[in-house]
Amino acid sequence: HITTSLPLPSERDHLRPRIDMIVFMIDIKSKYSLKNVEASLAHVDASFFLGKVCFLVTGVGRVNYCSVEMNAIWKLGEVYCSPVLFCELELEGIRVATAQRLLRMLQICAGHIPGVSALSFGTLMRRSAED
């Protein structure tokens, strides 16, 4: 399910499936995109930041057109203890690889991978980013 901002409308709560993972997309070319994500973060339950949230930064192949400071994005990942992924949507190979990675993360967050929890996966992601 896709939404442009949070909170989600409450009138359809009874029809909404369980939410296993939240991916916040930030377009590196749009300051509005970052501000929208920052505003939406206040509506996410704190328990989701334990391995069930990630930030997907798009447009990274166009650093010359960057409107968002990378430090602001890295700080979001650090403050919310959530991984930051980068993707160039215009390149099919990168787009497919990113979709596969997100799908694998979702499988873990939904509990479909035995022996790996969303919390332990989040810790592994942070460690691999530091290496």
TrEMBL record:
It comes from the Eukaryota. Pfam families: CENP-M (PF11111). Keywords: Centromere, Chromosome, Nucleus. The keyword Nucleus applies. Its main location: nucleus. The keyword Nucleus applies. Gene3D superfamilies: P-loop containing nucleotide triphosphate hydrolases. It is found in: Chromosome, Centromere; Nucleus. GO terms for cellular component: chromosome, centromeric region; nucleus. InterPro entries: Centromere_Cenp-M, P-loop_NTPase. PANTHER family: CENTROMERE PROTEIN M (PTHR34436). This is Centromere protein M. It comes from Dromas ardeola.
